[in-house]
Design a protein that fits this description.
Two copies of one chain form a homodimer.
Chain A (H helix, E strand, L loop, with lengths): L2 E10 L19 E13 L2 E11 L4 H15 L9 H9 L2 H4 L6 H22 L3 H6 L3 H7 L11 H11 L3 H11 L1 E9 L5 H13 L4 E5 L4 H15 L4 E5 L6 H11 L4 E5 L7 H11 L3 E4 L6 H9 L5 E2 L8 H15 L12 H16 L8 E3 L13 E2 L2 E2 L13 H6 L6 H4 L2
Pfam family, one (chains A, B): MR_MLE_C
Keywords (chains A, B): Lyase, Magnesium, Metal-binding
InterPro entries (chains A, B): Enolase-like_C_sf, Enolase-like_N, Enolase_C-like, L-fuconate_dehydratase, Mandel_Rmase/mucon_lact_enz_CS, Mandelate_racemase_C, RHMD-like
């Protein structure tokens, strides 16, 4: 099929008005998407065949990602998309030498590539009539290995070794697919823990989370230690000893303060500390991990690319890897990252929330369970109950689990009415603001 | 003084037509600048007081950096610029939580911040009537320490320790300023070594470099091993055993191939291997360094920020640090990086070339010599003889040394005629292309 046009949209939701999403580094996010539509010359079931994808930002600067998406347009418009060569499609974007200079493989151009690559997978899923998790999970091991860009990885994992991993997991695929369809994939919720919420709201939402079947919640920390001690105590009292409470500092600390702060929170048994410091600081995370054990160290939503993930694993810097669907180069780079994590035996617990991140990332974890790691042990996908109503195929959570999506594509298509109303700056929501 | 407006320009030079700047990863660069003019409500010597700065790209995507510069405009336009608080100015840009999300501290938004921060230093230098190297070198140690953003650095270097370093260097400042003014700062040249050049051109330019007083040249490698062996042999024969030949792979290799390739080049005594692999790969550089000794490992032009520099030093991953004036957040982040390098005793040999990078970065090395490391031993600034004619105050090279600039500012102001002619896509050079 031929991609006849690439369309980029600047879509923003005024979430800062309610302090949803507030944390120690991001006090007033307006959840936003630099959104891509790939149009083709084909149709399915009488409707034009399109791919939808996006990258996530928190407001200002979303237009920079839109500009970066448009910078890739000459490489995409008019191109044939071979659903059997999505690795090649991805590498053609990422290896453009002039655009690569703006990273390499990081920042706005990389996020833009993520939006386009995810849109291509949404398109391929719709063309095949399969949800993307299943499209991936039904590929031959050789096809999966070919999705990844192996440059810079071979000192940690070769394509040959990755192929062995995938072949070892192949016999169990059918049974795990049944399990996934029957039980869903475990989730945890960040809904109770935003920094801008009152104590009463924190306690009420924590109790609701447990009643809803979640076995893990998450609290934002890092702005004020006394507040954190009080809030963590309230949350622990609310959920009891059997529920895991993760805490998330959103990159607030240097190495020594991270260790000190976490020692002060230890009496309330936090499960993991997320983003204690800069996402670029492999050696810093390793030092913090040594300093805060048995509390686990988690990071990944802001890790720029597979080269930094590789080093986090090589250095033993993290206990939990938190992939993001749209910060690295979409499905293809995340496939490489899932293979790395499986090779090192580190569980992947994706970052989600934002706008559409839950919808997108569930496909990656479900693929991982069926075809890569083969396990959901100590693995949970983040869930936040924001903005799902804007999507055609929103996530469904039942008893603390993501229900495996059945609709073709990557669940990344926003409703046309939302695209129009929240368009920045000319949609009605912003015009009247 | 008040910044009344921020103007962003997309300026591109069609260098790909001559294969100037061609290397193993960047076959056809069009050297470009996302260029900033800060206009103020003041004047000096009857001329309006302005600051000029830029970041460097190689063509496509330059418009993305321009968009990122414009994204900062609301933080800059109408702001008071206190030349005594350029650290504060810099941190206000870099800590904007919504724009930070697009990095953090990397990619297009970080390069845009570099352009603006360098323009602010150009402005401050012009306001004070001093070249920026001297503006910096005459600051009190406390003022210099306050330029840096210390977040994420304190496990390697605290502001208190940095202050000690600067105080220790203070008594020698006057004598070193005299030395610098008399002798200039050592340079090396990359002019002979572009991958697209013929063997004859390589030999001729190598001989010319030695005749011009350079004691180090650099060759691009990494596309084809047989070619590299032949070219390095030709260059070694042309310059003789006493001249250093650095080689530069521009991120072409994984760890094992880097070591193998360099073993094959060892007979020709390369001085350093530059960018053997991904600039994000701290542990990979450390492994390569162990594998290629006594050849030195150099990197830095694509290192995104001070956190990655910190780790390169902590891990003993590099022998030579190659700062870039415009990829990290301009003068302020480079001050932090120079302090880190001095603390770890690693020499800084800046990346230059491109468009205007020589002009900008000389100020940083000269400041380093006078006020930070206090040495030019094993330190050279890259020199490439491209595109200097477009600048108001171009670099001057005498006997293989950069002459210390005397004009106020950062030497980053492009001629108005060049800004107009090379404007993309509407300047005459591109309109007629």
């Amino acid at each position: 099929m031929k991609i006849v046009s690439l369309e980029a949209h600047d879509v923003r939701f005024p979430t800062s008005r309610e302090l949803d999403g507030s944390d120690a580094m991001n006090p007033d996010p307006d959840y936003s998407a630099a959104y891509v539509v790939l149009r083709t010359d084909e149709s399915r079931d009488g409707r034009p065949l399109e791919g939808h994808g996006f990258c996530f930002t928190i407001g200002r600067g979303n237009e920079v990602c839109v500009a970066a998406i448009n910078a890739y347009a000459p490489l995409v418009e008019g191109a044939e998309l071979d659903p059997g060569d999505l690795g090649g499609f991805s590498r053609r974007l990422l290896h453009d030498s002039q655009l690569r200079w703006l990273g390499p493989e990081k920042g706005a151009v990389h996020m833009a590539a993520a939006a386009i690559i995810n849109a291509a997978f949404d398109l391929a899923g719709k063309a095949a009539g399969l949800p993307v998790w299943r499209l991936l999970a039904e590929m031959a091991p050789e096809q999966i290995v070919d999705l990844a860009d192996w440059r810079y990885l071979t000192d940690a994992l070769t394509p040959e070794r990755a192929l062995e991993l995938l072949r070892d997991a192949a016999p169990g695929r059918a049974a795990r697919t049944e399990t996934l369809l029957a039980r869903g994939y475990p989730a945890y919720t960040t809904t109770p823990g935003w920094l801008g919420y009152t104590d009463d709201k924190l306690v009420r939402l924590s109790r609701e989370a447990v009643a809803d079947g979640f076995t893990q919640i998450k609290l934002k920390v890092g702005a004020d230690l006394d507040d954190d001690v009080r809030r963590l105590r309230l949350a622990r009292d609310a959920v009891g000893p059997g529920v895991r409470i993760a805490v998330d500092a959103n990159q607030r600390w240097d190495v020594a303060p991270a260790i000190e702060w976490m020692r002060a929170l230890e009496p309330f048994a936090p499960y993991w500390i997320e983003e204690p410091t800069s996402p670029d600081d492999v050696l810093g995370h390793a030092a913090i991990r040594r300093g805060v054990a048995p509390v686990k160290v988690a990071t990944g939503e802001h890790i720029a690319n597979r080269v930094l993930v590789k080093q986090m694993l090589q250095a033993g810097a993290i206990d939990v890897l938190q992939i993001d669907a749209c910060r690295v180069a979409g499905v293809t780079e995340n496939v490489a990252i899932l293979l790395l994590a499986a090779a090192y035996g580190v569980p992947v617990c994706p970052h989600a929330g934002g706008v559409g991140l839950c919808e997108a990332v569930q496909h990656l974890s479900m693929f991982d369970f069926v075809a890569v790691s083969g396990s959901t042990e100590d693995r949970v996908i983040e869930y936040v109950d924001h903005l799902h109503e804007h999507f055609e195929d929103p996530v469904r959570i039942v008893q603390g689990h993501y229900v495996a999506p059945g609709a073709p594509g990557m669940s990344t298509q926003m409703k046309a009415t939302s695209l129009a109303a929240y368009a920045h700056p000319d949609g009605e929501i912003w015009r009247n603001h």
